Amino acid sequence: MGNVEMALAVLAKMFLRGCSPNVHTFTSLMKGYFMGGRLCEALDLWNRMIQEGSEPNTVAYNTLIHGLCSYGKMVEAVSVSQKMERNGVFPNETTYSTLIDGFAKAGDLVGASEIWNKMITNGCLPNVVVYTCMVDVLCRNSMFNHALHLIENMANGNCPPNTITFNTFIKGLCCSGKTEWAMKVLNQMRQYGCAPNVTTYNEVLDGLFNAKRTREALQIVGEIEEMEIKSNLVTYNTILSGFCHAGMFKGALQIAGKLLVGGTKPDSITYNTVIYAYCKQGEVKTAIQLVDRLTKKGEGYPDVFTYTSLLWGVCNWIGVDDAVVYLDKMINEGICPNRATWNALVRGLFSKLGHLGPIHTVDNILANGEVT
Ligand SMILES: *[C@@H]1O[C@H](CO)[C@@H](O)[C@H](O)[C@H]1NC(C)=O
Ligand SMILES: *[C@@H]1O[C@H](CO)[C@@H](O)[C@H](O)[C@H]1NC(C)=O
């Protein structure tokens, strides 16, 4: 559960009662350290385990390898797997799939392929997880035809692809702007017995909105409803920001309404997008009310993005002098303005002085906090 401190307290009790920790004890603690982001302590513990004479088993090695991979330390992870073999503990399919997943996440096709070959040489058959990691790394290297070929091989062999395999492929295609192909895969995956799930639709929606293919995105939104796929927060946030980027602020606000009615709990992305939409719509008063409500809520709302949208809205629709009030408020709440915030204000001032036309520069604030 990530509660390492409590685990250490139990360990101390063990010592007090004269029980010595064994490889299971050390492995559990190491896993906790890795989960808690405490890499150095995890490695210290491993060394201590060796010093105490506990022989690491497959689970212990796999835990160490998994931990190293999750920190992107692939060289170290591979070296541990080699050491493991030298010590007569044989890597199993978990070991290989962990390493391949690590290389896939790093986009390292050569590394992933080497482990794949080694796995086959050692008589371990790839499972669906391993295949999916290979699809992932092929996509990250823009080798989409190879990825498709691999999926076809899976279907023809005895390791059929699953929804996650297709989601990985679709995500890869969308990230490269190949939305048409992604849509085709969405329609084909059922033939392989894989039903698209909400994640599949989220990926396709994100890809379509990013490619500014709003009409097709709207069709997908309709399809989600038709198929009675339950939208999650990611779905709503994707549609919300997609609508905003397409300038469909009214539609965005309607989606926000749907989210609330459907009982999904909004997060800061939702609120910030809604406030942005209100400001773009000129409904700055409503945006202010919402920001006030969020301030009472605490929990890290509002943040610099909230205030930047608000300041832009106030500058543009009410006046720079009022905007300065919110700048003070923001600073008093300990929220540090960023470059985009200052830009919104400076543009506001210039336009008040009549040096520039109206301000239309806030569009990228939510995306990357930059205004030119
Ligand atoms: C491989 O090792 C993991 C522990 O890391 C274990 O959970 C799994 O069952 C093992 N797989 C096989 C096929 O023995
Ligand atoms: C949908 O697939 C993803 C993997 O791409 C998985 O993580 C998620 O749990 C699945 N969702 C549902 C509701 O089955």
Automatic annotation (TrEMBL):
Organism: Populus trichocarpa (Western balsam poplar)
Protein name: Pentatricopeptide repeat-containing protein
Key word Zinc-finger present: no
Homology family: Belongs to the PPR family. P subfamily.
Top-rank taxon, per record: Eukaryota
Alphabetical list of InterPro entries matching this protein: PPR_rpt (IPR002885), TPR-like_helical_dom_sf (IPR011990)
Residue ranges of the TM segments: none
Pfam families, alphabetized: PPR_2 (PF13041)
Keywords: Repeat
First and last residues of every PPR repeat: 22-56, 57-91, 92-126, 127-161, 162-196, 197-231, 232-266, 267-301, 303-337
